[in-house]
Amino acid sequence: MHIERDVSLKPFNTLALEARASALVAVRNDDELAQALAWARGQDMPVVPLGQGSNVVLAGDIEALVVIQQERGISIVDEDDSSVRLRVCAGENWHQLVCWALAQGYHGLENLALIPGTVGAAPIQNIGAYGVELDRFVVAVHALTIAEGEPVTLARAACEFAYRDSIFKHQLKDILVITAVDFRLSKQPVADTSYPALANYLSEHALEQTPQAIFDAVVALRSSRLPDPATTPNAGSFFKNPIIAYERSAYLGTRFPGIPRYPQADGRAKLAAAWMIDHCGWKGVSRAGVGVHPAHALVLVNQGSDSGAVLLALAGDIQKSVAETFGYVLEIEPRVYGAD
Ligand code: FAD
Ligand code: EPU
């Protein structure tokens, strides 16, 4: 374990924004993590865990020890004829886990293919795509407390998962570093094709609803819509889709014909932030080295700026114009660090 002082975080965030960390360390197991946490306590320094930096906006320097979670390993906790419980270390790459599980015949994760990032970060915002959210598979989340370096385990119910949300964004924000996640996956093929774009893709390509076909369809759909951070720095969706009272969504439906509205289990309705931003004319707009992706209005891209502040200024103008048009302030989805 090697703790470096005053480190550029540009290689550690997929928006490729420039910001410095007071200190940075990569940890490969629980002992190294515990040592790093003890070091930070000794320096009276806060700790910021990072995986692959695909859901952060660095708007200024981070006065903290940045801990890059690189703990690797997948093990079977228990299994029977119908399912398997896996323990997956936090530093495993999410998409590689999805590919590995599919190859083993452990099913359910196929709809979540190609989401960037680590397993340890996945519970933070309860990653979701194509009609499926992570919490469907989580059995438990294992972590060390930042303040004491003590191991804790949270059962799924304690994680308070919701759309792009969990307890790790609220009561347990900045309290834990996740070290592993337990998942229960099915040994029988699972096919959730409730997401219309996914169902359409399968029928247009005359594909059966097999796990492999769903995986392939999700990879194709995502590749056609979302920019690859390796060539076009971005953090995926920059805003959450608003979930609002059904009556209000019905009113918006009469004022803005065609606005997508998805009924939710709790009776409310989810709106498509991408459609709202697109409707306001932002798609493809570029300024000061940042912009709105021409293929997807929900994705803000860094086109050569180093500055998170410039990106947030663009985000602020988008929020203002969407609020003026639709009466709703879009909520930023990635975690913002270093802003005043
Ligand atoms: P980071 O960005 O490194 O961290 C994100 C947050 O989690 C930070 O606050 C960090 O402190 C915290 N964190 C990270 N690791 C730990 C840990 N071990 N313990 C405690 N806290 C931790 N998300 C979706 O839900 N669905 C999508 O379809 C989707 N598509 C995307 C497409 C693109 C092109 C990109 C760039 C992003 C997309 N995302 C999507 C967002 C992103 O992939 C997820 O949020 C992912 O889980 C982030 O993983 P990470 O390792 O990069 O986390
Ligand atoms: N749309 C537009 N203009 C655009 C893009 C999309 O009008 O430029 C419309 C589409 O036609 C569609 C609607 O907006 O009617 C929704 O678009 P899409 O299916 O692409 O999904 P999304 O709501 O924009 C969400 C997630 C994505 C996830 C996809 C697939 C959020 C904030 N985003 O996007 O997650 O991959 O669904 O399930 O929930 C992420 O979190 O980073 C992310 C990429």
Q: Key features?
A:
340 residues, alpha+beta, five-stranded antiparallel β-sheet, binds flavin-adenine dinucleotide, binds uridine-diphosphate-2(N-acetylglucosaminyl) butyric acid
Put simply, the count of helices is 7
Bound small molecules, by name, code or SMILES, are:
flavin-adenine dinucleotide, uridine-diphosphate-2(N-acetylglucosaminyl) butyric acid
Strand percentage lies at: 25-35%
Assembly type of the chains comes to single chain
Strand order of the largest sheet: 6-7-12-10-11
Uncertain runs: none
- Form type: globular
**For the terminal residues, how far apart are their CA atoms?**
32 Å
One letter per element, helices H and strands E, the order comes to EEHEEEEEHEEEEEHHEEHEEHEEEHE
| Major sheet description | 5 strands, antiparallel
**Structural class category:** alpha+beta
Helix content percent band: 25-40%
Determine Rg (CA atoms, Å): 20 Å
E-strand count: 20
Kindly report the average pLDDT value: 97
Describe the structure.
- The protein is α+β, with helices and mostly antiparallel strands and 340 residues long.
- The protein has helices at 30-43, 94-104, 196-204, 211-225, 246-255, 273-279, 308-326, and strands at 4-8, 20-27, 47-50, 56-58, 62-69, 74-79, 83-89, 128-129, 132-133, 138-145, 151-155, 176-186, 234-237, 243-244, 261-263, 269-271, 286-287, 290-292, 299-302, 335-337.
- The protein has a five-stranded antiparallel sheet with strand order 6-7-12-10-11. It has a four-stranded mixed sheet with strand order 1-2-5-3, with helices on one face. It has a four-stranded antiparallel sheet with strand order 13-19-18-17, with helices on one face.
- It starts with a strand and ends with a strand.
- Bound molecules: flavin-adenine dinucleotide (FAD) and uridine-diphosphate-2(N-acetylglucosaminyl) butyric acid.
